[in-house]
What does this fold into?
Amino acid sequence: MELFDRAIELARNPAHARWLSPLLLAADACLCAFIILKIPYTEIDWEAYMQQVSQYLDGERDYTLIKGGTGPLVYPAAHVYIYSVLYKLTDEGQNILLAQAIFAWLYLGILTIVMACYRMAKAPPYIFPLLIVSKRLHSIFLLRLFNDCFAVAFLFLAIYAYQHRIWTVGSVAYSFGVGTKMSLLLAGPAVGIILLQALPLRRALNAAFLMAQVQLTIAWPFIPRNPIGYISRAFEFSRQFLYKWTVNWRFLDEETFRSREFAIALVSTNLGFLALFAATRWLKPSRQSISEFFMAMWKPRPLLVQQQVSLRVTASFTMTSTLTSMMIGLLCARSLHYQFYAYIAWSTPFLLWKSKMHPVGIYAVWAAQEWAWNVYPSTKASSAVVVGCLFIQVVGVWWGTREDDANARAPNDRNDQTHKHVH
It folds into this structure.
């Protein structure tokens, strides 16, 4: 009985994650090496990325004229800069093995940050193994080389910085992530609410202005030539999605999938969930309603009140809010492709834990989701499971955090730093 109690304590005590994390990282490093050496690389977008950046390196600055084998360039400029570096490092994209090695190091680096974020949020060790066993996630990084890998890196780097209350670094990282792939805009509502509570209004607005400056800076080489072309391609909200590639809505018929009514329903549902979380969960640190929160923006909080609100923006609150905002957006997305699992795989264990689900339930939902994302091509059954698992996470987090203490405070050893940052 004592041995059983010890095992339970090891699985549930967040303090043990500190020594478990390096062991899991070492095991995953071996797994990455095995995958690269034994499983054939699959070409999907890498050649197109290389074709596109080669045109940029040859001097093309009109975004609408940059094209590759899969079509026009439809990602923001940070994507171009990242893959330009990879183009030069990998002999114009020909050295695939080196590219895979670079992505393996990227994967392990992000995993290190993800585990650090989990530890900051006091997540229990028993969910950590789920971070290293996803077949689809390893495929996205090591066998596909998608740009989502870099976008998710900046997302978790931003979360890590915000958890440590390094607001400037977090804001730059988040904006650079948006500049890599606009999917990170889905986290924007939570990021904005976090900053407006953690910082005085003026500093929060400065953070927003800094993000805008980052976007302008990375876009600047293309702005003089064709500013409208850059914006319309880098942030193409009107893109038409192909039914045959959808992972999430395959269980609907194609006519419904393409209908305007369905698109409106998804946008409305997205906004509804955001409003629900903002009203009942994300504003807990301020202890204000939505109307009071926005009214208070015109009248800055007294310094002592602002410090108290800021201290209630904890590491767990920051991570929960940001990842939930992403999951809401992905749940209500018109079409998800397989690479979008990069944003889900490392979020699911944490969000299921925050839902207060039993560990058996956490592993069951994770397994069902992993199965569904590994079905190719997607089927009605697999797509229904994809949507169902995302729905469980969103609703589960809302229900599981209903009694989270609004009086929770950031760690005491960071109080002095917090006070410094809110002035």
